[in-house]
Amino acid sequence: MIEVWHAFIKAIELIVSLDPEVMEIAGRSLGISATSVILASLICLPLGGLIHFYRFPGKRVLINVIQTLFSIPSVCIGLLVFVLFSRAGPIGGLNLLFTPTTMVIGHMMLITPILLGLTISALSGVDKAIKDTALSLGASDFQAVIIISKEARFAIVAAIIMGFGRAVSELGIALMVGGNIRGFTRVLTSAIALESQKGELEMAIALGIILLSLSFIVNVVLNRIQQR
Amino acid sequence: MRVNKKRQGGENVGENVKISKSLRDCCSAGKMRVNEKIRRKIMGKRGKRIGKMIGGLVVIVLLGLFIGRVGRAPVPPPVEVLPPAPPTVEALRPVERMRVATTTSLYDTGLWGHLEPMFEKEFNVELDIIYAGTGIALAWGRRGDVDVIATHAKAYEKKFVAEGYGVQRVVFAYNYFLIVGPPDDPAGIKGLSPEAAFKRLMETGLGRFVSRGDASGTHGKEKAIWRGAGYDYEAVRRAGKWYIEAGRGMGPTLLMASEKQAYTLVDMGTFLAFGGEVDLVPLVDEGAILLNVYSAIAINPERHPKTNIEMANNLIEFLTSPEIQELIGNYGVEEFGMPLFIPCAGAEPKE
Amino acid sequence: MVIVEVRNLSKRFGEKESLKNINIKVESGEVLALIGPTGAGKTTLLRLIDLLDMPTSGRIYFDDTDVTQLGKVGLETRRRMAFVSQKPVVFNTTVYNNIAYGLKWRGVGKSSIRQKVDNILEMVNLSDHKNRNAGTLSGGEAQRVAIARAIAVEPEVLLLDEPTANLDPISTSRIEELITNIIHRYGTTIVMTTHDMAQGQRLADRIVVLINGEVHQVGERSEVFAFPRDREVAEFVGMKNIFLVEFKGSKAWLQNLEVELGREMKDAQGYLAIRPEDIVISRERLSSSMRNNFRGVISKIIREGFYYEVQVKVGWVIFKVLITGNALSELDLREGASIYLAFKSTAIHTFQ
């Protein structure tokens, strides 16, 4: 257990001294995860809205499928993206394997179900009376959708935080698709995996603490936005 | 107020650019100006905090896309894409990349970390080193996902070349495997031949054995020793609870063996690198079968035309050059008092 | 001038027919109360008028134009009305924004919105809570916000669905005061629902009694109360003594009691109703003009606020009589006591 204490001190040292390699890795983690979350949100929030606001056959089944995909292991996504982007794969010609771009694609695939599912449930969580009230006050359908989304904003921000959390903490895609290349695709989780493989337990835990700090900051920032 | 916000945004861009070394390397002032312009457009409309956030997020998105573009190119991009070069060393850095899949034992000992910057400097290339067990490294090679592989499993490698995936198998260093175990050596294998030691472990059932169990080069070597001792490997796997399959890299396997006070097979380099952290001692270190040869194989461009064969050949030449061979031979002496690898450029050491 | 008219309106939810063939005209500037017991279809009708739901059949006219459709016409028509629901619904933002939304959606300019909202906040006495999150308000305050939000858009027709149903008596009287204010100040046409007959009488010009999805009676506010048209309305307006009788000439047989009606009826079965406050109780047989006098025994006394409901058993029939506490103690009424009942034939309502 003493390692944890040492790791804690080490984490603080690394943060205070702005260790360039660690900062670079943390920055990359943030950049890749944030990019995936933003791109996935741009797709999922409107799509979730469409699924919620429109009635169509198979809607319940679709929602069940989306919710089932919450628990898809990141390694499976990693494998899927790997066989897609590998040179021997269907779009290997793009030569994107072992790049941050592919990691972003993998992360997007990983968190899309979460963002979609939680957006839908966030919107369903809004009192049905809100819609009627808006319409009765003269809102057009679109204006009503906007106000319902505003009512759901807390839960939607929670969904985004959830998505970021999943993306920043997953390892399978980072290893399978990113390749953990130093200075290029190494992110906090794959660095943790490497350090623990090397037996550098303190360093590994310290990186874990930095990852949590990063998530904490993202959380605080998003919550501040939401409270506006 | 407005000016202030803009300036903050500007710093933001700067920070984001720092995120990736490669990006910084090839990101010129011109490129940054483009980002700045886009951001200003956004900021101009809404000066509020949310605007600032969105601005920042858009920059991250652009950054993400940009990282992707950089990563796509082992082929040198056309010159006109490169921004006018400011007179800094940074800007002269290349965007050409090459990928090496390497066995974990070469990576964990720190040898690659040592060689990488030298190679990059000499050949103006960004070397992407992906560590993995020999099994997955070969799989990546077969699929053309890497340009060169550095592994230590002779039989697999020969097959790999014979099947046309690799150009040629070039050995560049070797050392020995060790059978290590708890200092009290419950099965009494100290000083035995590797085959005899394994036989003893099997027959006495005293003490445990942790196997890599991951189709790595080390695992292949372990299987060869079991075969040499006269056992069918499948029978060994079912032999009892004393035989533990870790399914992990060399480092974790070694740590596990130490925790469980078990025997294991380990390459000398990794064992020395981990020496201080494990409570295990070398018990068997002699025997032709323990020879551990590292070789590099360039991926056959006839199979995978998009691989960077030129740079792969450069790397192999680099590894077998006299200066680097000497460097490999001295690697670790300072830290461990003995070399971790013995250079053997081009010549297969005799068993 | 008729501003809203519904013709032959029906609404069916699955098997249940919530509204059956409703015909109502709303005059511009009047206050029309839809009253009826819970589940009568009042809210459904109000929602149909606001074009929040579509009728199963029938048409809705606004300003003599058929508006029975959603989409553009629906939106434009809906923007000439405002609806306040029974449960106060507020948006999770400031009180100010809540009231401003309707104006914003209509594209009203910012400064104009500010002025209007401030005026209305003053009117509903919520200026102090302007920047508070509406979600933190009490039920009564939230309902005031909801009403303020509705009148902010200056609707031609204001629809109020049970505006005081969930509120305490003090909040209720405040809301009623506010509604009266609106009526005086803006002369807005109001269609409101209530299950409270008294509230309907206090606020409305005309009353529509809706029971089980059907219009039972339409009339001036006192008319419905004084002259219910059928047994169901009689029951709803508080005539607790309603009996199945056999009419014969100017008499009605209530089991073995002979009741003098003072008017000729067709010989048939029908109903007879008497308000509990129209029956007089006495210790001695009254020799007054009241044609109907019966001797009975008090079976039960129930306190109802200031009043007491005395149940008197005459033969097999139980009459309910409303008397004051004073009368109760003066007459020294007790359960089991033997007393006399009397009521005028003009107090008897008959339905065939």
Automatic annotation (TrEMBL), chain A:
Gene Ontology annotations for the cellular component aspect, listed alphabetically:
plasma membrane
**Coiled-coil features, chain-numbered ranges:** none
Q: Which UniProt keywords apply?
A: Membrane, Transmembrane, Transmembrane helix, Transport
Residue limits of the ABC transmembrane type-1 domain?
A: 26-222
Chain ranges passing through the membrane:
30-54, 61-85, 105-126, 154-181, 201-222
Subcellular locations according to the entry? Cell membrane; Membrane
What Pfam family is a match for this entry?
BPD_transp_1
Q: How does it sit in the membrane?
A: Multi-pass membrane protein
Keyword Metal-binding: yes or no? no
Q: Which residues form the signal peptide?
A: none
Q: Does the keyword Transferase apply?
A: no
Q: By its UniProt entry, which CDD domains does this protein fall under?
A: TM_PBP2
Gene Ontology biological process terms from the UniProt entry: transmembrane transport
Q: Which domain of life is it from?
A: Bacteria
Stated family: Belongs to the binding-protein-dependent transport system permease family.
What PANTHER family does the record point to?
Answer: PERMEASE COMPONENT OF TUNGSTATE ABC TRANSPORTER
This chain belongs to which protein, by name? ABC transporter permease subunit
Annotated source species: candidate division NPL-UPA2 bacterium Unc8
UniProtKB/TrEMBL annotation, chain C:
Q: Which Pfam families match?
A: ABC_tran, TOBE
**Record SUPFAM superfamilies:** MOP-like (SSF50331), P-loop containing nucleoside triphosphate hydrolases (SSF52540)
ABC transporter domain: residues covered: 4-237
What Gene Ontology cellular-component terms does the record carry?
A: membrane
What are the alphabetically sorted keywords of the record? ATP-binding, Nucleotide-binding, Transport
Example GO biological process: phosphate ion transmembrane transport
Q: Spell out the molecular function terms from Gene Ontology.
A: ATP binding; ATP hydrolysis activity; phosphate transmembrane transporter activity
Q: What is this protein called?
A: ABC transporter ATP-binding protein
Which organism is this protein's natural source? candidate division NPL-UPA2 bacterium Unc8
